[in-house]
Design goal:
Layout: H1 9-12, E1 18-20, H2 31-38, H3 49-59, E2 66-69, H4 71-82, E3 88-92, H5 97-104, E4 109-113, E5 131-135, H6 147-151, E6 159-163, E7 186-191, E8 204-207, H7 210-218, H8 227-236, H9 239-264, E9 269-271, E10 279-284, H10 290-295, E11 298-302, E12 313-317, H11 321-335
Parallel strand pairs: 1-11, 3-4, 3-5, 5-6, 6-7
Antiparallel strand pairs: 2-8, 7-8, 9-10, 10-12, 11-12
Helix pairs in contact: 2-8, 3-8, 4-5, 4-7, 9-11
Bound molecules: pyridoxal-5'-phosphate (PLP).
Length: 336
Protein backbone atom coordinates (compact mmCIF):
# COMPACT_ATOMS: atom_id res chain seq x y z
CA UNK A 1 0.00 0.00 0.00
CA UNK A 2 1.45 3.38 -0.94
CA UNK A 3 0.59 6.16 1.44
CA UNK A 4 0.22 9.81 0.65
CA UNK A 5 3.18 11.41 2.41
CA UNK A 6 2.04 14.83 1.19
CA UNK A 7 -1.14 14.73 3.26
CA UNK A 8 -1.25 17.34 6.04
CA UNK A 9 -3.74 18.34 8.68
CA UNK A 10 -4.66 21.57 6.92
CA UNK A 11 -6.44 19.43 4.30
CA UNK A 12 -8.49 17.71 7.01
CA UNK A 13 -9.41 20.96 8.74
CA UNK A 14 -12.02 22.23 6.32
CA UNK A 15 -14.17 25.26 7.09
CA UNK A 16 -16.96 24.76 9.56
CA UNK A 17 -15.25 21.98 11.50
CA UNK A 18 -13.66 22.33 14.92
CA UNK A 19 -9.96 22.07 14.06
CA UNK A 20 -8.12 19.42 16.05
CA UNK A 21 -6.07 18.49 12.99
CA UNK A 22 -3.59 21.35 12.80
CA UNK A 23 -1.24 21.77 15.74
CA UNK A 24 -0.91 25.52 15.57
CA UNK A 25 -1.61 27.26 18.89
CA UNK A 26 -5.02 28.87 18.94
CA UNK A 27 -4.27 32.12 20.69
CA UNK A 28 -4.41 35.70 19.48
CA UNK A 29 -1.03 37.11 18.48
CA UNK A 30 0.39 39.34 21.20
CA UNK A 31 0.26 43.06 20.39
CA UNK A 32 4.05 43.36 20.24
CA UNK A 33 4.18 40.60 17.62
CA UNK A 34 1.44 42.10 15.45
CA UNK A 35 3.16 45.48 15.66
CA UNK A 36 6.57 44.07 14.75
CA UNK A 37 5.14 42.30 11.71
CA UNK A 38 3.15 45.35 10.61
CA UNK A 39 6.16 47.63 10.99
CA UNK A 40 8.28 45.63 8.53
CA UNK A 41 9.40 47.72 5.56
CA UNK A 42 7.92 46.07 2.48
CA UNK A 43 9.49 48.50 0.04
CA UNK A 44 13.01 47.13 0.54
CA UNK A 45 14.52 43.72 -0.02
CA UNK A 46 14.70 41.86 3.28
CA UNK A 47 17.94 41.85 5.29
CA UNK A 48 18.30 38.82 7.57
CA UNK A 49 21.24 40.18 9.59
CA UNK A 50 19.27 41.22 12.68
CA UNK A 51 17.11 38.10 12.72
CA UNK A 52 20.17 35.90 12.35
CA UNK A 53 21.86 37.64 15.25
CA UNK A 54 18.71 37.34 17.36
CA UNK A 55 18.42 33.60 16.75
CA UNK A 56 22.13 33.12 17.39
CA UNK A 57 21.94 35.03 20.69
CA UNK A 58 18.87 33.08 21.76
CA UNK A 59 20.69 29.76 21.29
CA UNK A 60 24.13 30.90 22.34
CA UNK A 61 25.77 30.29 18.98
CA UNK A 62 27.77 32.41 16.56
CA UNK A 63 25.71 34.10 13.81
CA UNK A 64 27.38 32.03 11.11
CA UNK A 65 25.84 28.84 12.58
CA UNK A 66 22.34 30.19 11.88
CA UNK A 67 20.31 30.17 8.67
CA UNK A 68 16.89 31.81 8.42
CA UNK A 69 14.40 29.84 6.33
CA UNK A 70 10.84 30.17 5.06
CA UNK A 71 9.54 27.79 7.71
CA UNK A 72 11.12 24.47 8.55
CA UNK A 73 9.61 23.08 5.36
CA UNK A 74 12.19 25.08 3.38
CA UNK A 75 14.99 23.77 5.57
CA UNK A 76 14.16 20.18 4.62
CA UNK A 77 14.25 21.07 0.92
CA UNK A 78 17.61 22.83 1.34
CA UNK A 79 19.07 19.85 3.16
CA UNK A 80 17.85 17.55 0.40
CA UNK A 81 19.37 19.79 -2.27
CA UNK A 82 22.67 20.48 -0.55
CA UNK A 83 23.52 17.04 0.82
CA UNK A 84 24.56 13.99 -1.20
CA UNK A 85 23.68 11.16 1.17
CA UNK A 86 24.67 7.64 0.22
CA UNK A 87 22.38 6.19 2.88
CA UNK A 88 19.63 8.51 4.13
CA UNK A 89 17.56 7.26 7.04
CA UNK A 90 14.36 8.81 8.38
CA UNK A 91 13.13 7.64 11.76
CA UNK A 92 9.35 7.16 11.60
CA UNK A 93 6.59 7.70 12.53
CA UNK A 94 7.37 11.36 12.02
CA UNK A 95 6.55 14.44 9.97
CA UNK A 96 6.72 13.38 6.34
CA UNK A 97 8.13 16.48 4.62
CA UNK A 98 11.80 15.56 5.23
CA UNK A 99 11.37 12.23 3.45
CA UNK A 100 9.37 13.85 0.66
CA UNK A 101 12.02 16.53 0.16
CA UNK A 102 14.79 13.91 0.04
CA UNK A 103 12.87 11.83 -2.50
CA UNK A 104 12.06 14.90 -4.60
CA UNK A 105 15.78 15.66 -4.76
CA UNK A 106 16.40 12.17 -6.09
CA UNK A 107 17.67 10.47 -2.94
CA UNK A 108 16.61 7.07 -1.80
CA UNK A 109 15.26 7.00 1.74
CA UNK A 110 15.51 4.14 4.17
CA UNK A 111 12.88 4.09 6.92
CA UNK A 112 13.48 3.08 10.50
CA UNK A 113 10.06 2.32 11.98
CA UNK A 114 9.77 2.61 15.74
CA UNK A 115 7.10 0.49 17.44
CA UNK A 116 4.72 1.75 20.10
CA UNK A 117 5.43 3.48 22.46
CA UNK A 118 7.77 4.99 19.85
CA UNK A 119 10.88 5.49 21.96
CA UNK A 120 14.06 6.09 20.03
CA UNK A 121 16.13 2.96 19.69
CA UNK A 122 19.61 4.01 18.56
CA UNK A 123 20.46 0.43 17.65
CA UNK A 124 17.73 0.50 14.99
CA UNK A 125 19.62 3.15 13.00
CA UNK A 126 21.97 1.50 10.49
CA UNK A 127 25.60 2.16 11.27
CA UNK A 128 26.42 3.25 7.72
CA UNK A 129 23.66 5.89 7.56
CA UNK A 130 25.31 9.18 6.62
CA UNK A 131 22.10 11.17 7.03
CA UNK A 132 19.65 10.57 9.88
CA UNK A 133 16.47 12.59 10.33
CA UNK A 134 14.18 12.58 13.33
CA UNK A 135 11.84 14.88 15.22
CA UNK A 136 11.88 15.92 18.86
CA UNK A 137 9.30 16.08 20.28
CA UNK A 138 8.00 13.95 17.47
CA UNK A 139 4.97 14.58 15.31
CA UNK A 140 2.61 12.64 15.39
CA UNK A 141 3.57 10.50 18.39
CA UNK A 142 4.20 13.44 20.78
CA UNK A 143 7.16 11.51 22.19
CA UNK A 144 10.07 13.50 23.62
CA UNK A 145 13.38 11.72 23.16
CA UNK A 146 16.25 12.33 25.61
CA UNK A 147 18.74 14.70 23.98
CA UNK A 148 21.59 12.41 25.03
CA UNK A 149 20.05 9.48 23.13
CA UNK A 150 19.79 11.63 20.02
CA UNK A 151 23.29 13.06 20.39
CA UNK A 152 24.62 9.51 20.67
CA UNK A 153 23.50 9.00 17.05
CA UNK A 154 26.12 11.47 15.85
CA UNK A 155 29.09 10.01 13.95
CA UNK A 156 31.97 11.46 12.00
CA UNK A 157 30.74 11.71 8.41
CA UNK A 158 27.07 11.63 9.39
CA UNK A 159 24.60 14.51 9.26
CA UNK A 160 22.10 14.26 12.10
CA UNK A 161 18.97 16.35 11.53
CA UNK A 162 16.67 17.03 14.47
CA UNK A 163 13.34 18.72 13.74
CA UNK A 164 12.52 20.76 16.85
CA UNK A 165 9.40 22.48 15.47
CA UNK A 166 7.57 21.77 18.74
CA UNK A 167 10.47 22.02 21.21
CA UNK A 168 9.41 25.47 22.45
CA UNK A 169 6.30 23.78 23.89
CA UNK A 170 8.50 21.66 26.19
CA UNK A 171 9.23 23.23 29.61
CA UNK A 172 12.75 24.57 29.67
CA UNK A 173 13.23 23.05 26.19
CA UNK A 174 14.75 20.32 28.31
CA UNK A 175 15.78 17.98 25.49
CA UNK A 176 16.71 20.59 22.93
CA UNK A 177 20.00 20.32 21.06
CA UNK A 178 19.67 23.84 19.63
CA UNK A 179 22.59 25.10 21.68
CA UNK A 180 24.76 22.01 21.29
CA UNK A 181 27.85 22.99 19.34
CA UNK A 182 29.86 19.91 20.32
CA UNK A 183 27.80 17.30 18.42
CA UNK A 184 29.42 16.60 15.04
CA UNK A 185 27.19 17.00 11.99
CA UNK A 186 24.21 18.14 14.06
CA UNK A 187 21.53 20.16 12.27
CA UNK A 188 18.65 21.50 14.38
CA UNK A 189 15.58 22.81 12.58
CA UNK A 190 13.25 25.20 14.40
CA UNK A 191 10.02 26.97 13.53
CA UNK A 192 7.90 29.91 14.63
CA UNK A 193 4.82 28.25 13.15
CA UNK A 194 3.38 26.29 16.04
CA UNK A 195 3.80 28.14 19.31
CA UNK A 196 3.52 31.60 17.75
CA UNK A 197 0.66 30.62 15.45
CA UNK A 198 2.46 31.93 12.37
CA UNK A 199 1.86 29.12 9.88
CA UNK A 200 0.98 31.64 7.18
CA UNK A 201 4.08 33.78 7.65
CA UNK A 202 6.67 31.04 6.93
CA UNK A 203 9.39 31.60 9.52
CA UNK A 204 11.94 29.05 10.67
CA UNK A 205 15.65 28.59 11.10
CA UNK A 206 18.47 26.10 11.01
CA UNK A 207 21.26 25.78 13.59
CA UNK A 208 24.23 23.89 12.23
CA UNK A 209 28.02 23.93 11.82
CA UNK A 210 29.23 26.78 9.65
CA UNK A 211 30.10 24.70 6.60
CA UNK A 212 26.60 23.19 6.54
CA UNK A 213 24.95 26.59 6.95
CA UNK A 214 26.99 27.82 3.99
CA UNK A 215 26.00 24.83 1.87
CA UNK A 216 22.33 25.27 2.71
CA UNK A 217 22.49 29.00 2.00
CA UNK A 218 23.89 28.26 -1.45
CA UNK A 219 20.81 26.18 -2.21
CA UNK A 220 18.52 29.05 -1.21
CA UNK A 221 17.07 31.64 -3.55
CA UNK A 222 17.88 35.27 -2.86
CA UNK A 223 15.72 36.90 -0.16
CA UNK A 224 14.11 33.61 0.90
CA UNK A 225 12.52 34.98 4.09
CA UNK A 226 10.21 37.98 3.88
CA UNK A 227 10.74 41.15 5.90
CA UNK A 228 7.63 40.51 8.04
CA UNK A 229 8.86 36.99 8.81
CA UNK A 230 12.30 38.32 9.77
CA UNK A 231 10.69 40.98 11.97
CA UNK A 232 8.60 38.31 13.70
CA UNK A 233 11.75 36.28 14.21
CA UNK A 234 13.56 39.12 15.94
CA UNK A 235 10.53 39.78 18.14
CA UNK A 236 10.02 36.13 19.10
CA UNK A 237 13.68 35.62 20.09
CA UNK A 238 13.49 38.20 22.88
CA UNK A 239 13.64 37.27 26.56
CA UNK A 240 10.17 38.73 27.01
CA UNK A 241 8.83 36.41 24.30
CA UNK A 242 10.47 33.43 25.98
CA UNK A 243 8.81 34.41 29.26
CA UNK A 244 5.42 34.54 27.52
CA UNK A 245 5.94 31.02 26.26
CA UNK A 246 6.98 29.84 29.73
CA UNK A 247 3.83 31.44 31.13
CA UNK A 248 1.68 29.56 28.60
CA UNK A 249 3.18 26.13 29.27
CA UNK A 250 1.29 25.39 32.53
CA UNK A 251 -1.94 26.08 30.63
CA UNK A 252 -0.89 23.70 27.87
CA UNK A 253 -0.01 21.08 30.47
CA UNK A 254 -3.34 21.56 32.21
CA UNK A 255 -5.28 21.25 28.96
CA UNK A 256 -3.29 18.17 27.94
CA UNK A 257 -3.94 16.50 31.30
CA UNK A 258 -7.61 17.30 30.88
CA UNK A 259 -7.63 15.63 27.45
CA UNK A 260 -5.80 12.56 28.80
CA UNK A 261 -8.18 12.27 31.75
CA UNK A 262 -11.21 12.52 29.49
CA UNK A 263 -9.77 9.93 27.11
CA UNK A 264 -8.99 7.53 29.95
CA UNK A 265 -12.72 7.16 30.54
CA UNK A 266 -13.33 5.92 27.01
CA UNK A 267 -13.37 2.32 25.84
CA UNK A 268 -12.01 1.60 22.39
CA UNK A 269 -9.46 4.40 22.23
CA UNK A 270 -6.07 4.51 23.92
CA UNK A 271 -3.31 7.08 24.01
CA UNK A 272 -0.52 5.54 21.95
CA UNK A 273 2.40 7.19 23.76
CA UNK A 274 3.01 9.57 26.65
CA UNK A 275 2.57 13.02 25.07
CA UNK A 276 4.99 15.95 25.44
CA UNK A 277 3.83 18.12 22.56
CA UNK A 278 0.57 20.04 22.02
CA UNK A 279 -1.08 16.96 20.48
CA UNK A 280 -1.87 13.36 21.32
CA UNK A 281 -1.73 10.24 19.17
CA UNK A 282 -4.65 7.88 19.66
CA UNK A 283 -5.09 4.25 18.74
CA UNK A 284 -8.70 3.27 18.21
CA UNK A 285 -10.24 -0.18 18.02
CA UNK A 286 -12.33 0.83 15.04
CA UNK A 287 -10.56 2.13 11.93
CA UNK A 288 -10.92 5.44 10.12
CA UNK A 289 -12.73 7.21 12.90
CA UNK A 290 -11.86 10.56 11.33
CA UNK A 291 -14.78 10.08 8.95
CA UNK A 292 -17.58 9.79 11.51
CA UNK A 293 -15.87 12.48 13.62
CA UNK A 294 -16.20 14.85 10.67
CA UNK A 295 -19.89 14.09 10.69
CA UNK A 296 -19.93 15.24 14.31
CA UNK A 297 -18.20 18.50 13.40
CA UNK A 298 -14.60 17.65 14.38
CA UNK A 299 -11.55 17.57 12.14
CA UNK A 300 -8.83 15.29 13.50
CA UNK A 301 -5.62 14.34 11.74
CA UNK A 302 -5.88 10.96 10.07
CA UNK A 303 -2.63 9.27 11.02
CA UNK A 304 -2.57 6.45 8.49
CA UNK A 305 -0.43 8.61 6.18
CA UNK A 306 2.49 8.38 8.62
CA UNK A 307 4.84 5.47 7.93
CA UNK A 308 4.56 2.98 10.78
CA UNK A 309 0.95 3.84 11.64
CA UNK A 310 -2.36 2.67 10.21
CA UNK A 311 -6.01 3.64 10.01
CA UNK A 312 -6.49 2.83 13.68
CA UNK A 313 -4.46 5.94 14.53
CA UNK A 314 -5.50 9.54 14.72
CA UNK A 315 -3.89 12.65 16.12
CA UNK A 316 -5.72 15.33 18.03
CA UNK A 317 -4.51 18.76 19.07
CA UNK A 318 -4.65 19.80 22.71
CA UNK A 319 -7.31 22.50 22.92
CA UNK A 320 -9.14 24.31 25.73
CA UNK A 321 -11.11 22.08 28.08
CA UNK A 322 -14.54 22.94 26.65
CA UNK A 323 -13.43 21.98 23.14
CA UNK A 324 -11.84 18.82 24.50
CA UNK A 325 -15.00 17.84 26.38
CA UNK A 326 -17.11 18.29 23.26
CA UNK A 327 -14.61 16.31 21.20
CA UNK A 328 -14.39 13.43 23.67
CA UNK A 329 -18.19 13.23 23.81
CA UNK A 330 -18.24 12.96 20.01
CA UNK A 331 -15.50 10.33 20.11
CA UNK A 332 -17.50 8.30 22.63
CA UNK A 333 -20.50 8.39 20.30
CA UNK A 334 -18.60 7.26 17.22
CA UNK A 335 -17.00 4.44 19.18
CA UNK A 336 -20.31 2.93 20.23
C1 LIG B 1 7.20 18.25 13.15
C2 LIG B 1 7.00 19.35 12.16
N1 LIG B 1 8.07 19.95 11.63
C3 LIG B 1 7.93 20.93 10.74
C4 LIG B 1 6.69 21.35 10.31
C5 LIG B 1 6.61 22.42 9.28
O1 LIG B 1 6.50 23.63 9.87
P1 LIG B 1 6.86 24.98 9.14
O2 LIG B 1 5.60 25.76 9.13
O3 LIG B 1 7.93 25.59 9.98
O4 LIG B 1 7.32 24.68 7.76
C6 LIG B 1 5.55 20.76 10.82
C7 LIG B 1 4.22 21.20 10.37
O5 LIG B 1 3.26 20.48 10.42
C8 LIG B 1 5.72 19.73 11.78
O6 LIG B 1 4.66 19.11 12.29
Amino acid sequence: VTINLAHHGDVDATAGLVDLAVNVRQAPHPGWLREAIAAADLTRYPDATAARAAVAARHGRPDRQVLLTAGSAEAFVLLARALRPRHAVVVHPQFTEPELALRAAGHEVDRVLLDAPYRLDPAAVPEDADLVVLGNPTNPTSVLHPSATIAALARPGRTLVVDEAFMDAVPGESESLAGATDVPGLVVVRSLTKTWALAGLRAGHVLAPEHLVEALAEAQPHWPVSAPALAACVACMSDAAAREVEAWLPRLDHDRRHLLAALSGIAGATVAAAPHAPFVLLRTERPELWNPLRGKGFAVRRADTFPGLDDHHLRVAVRDTATTDAFVAALREVLT
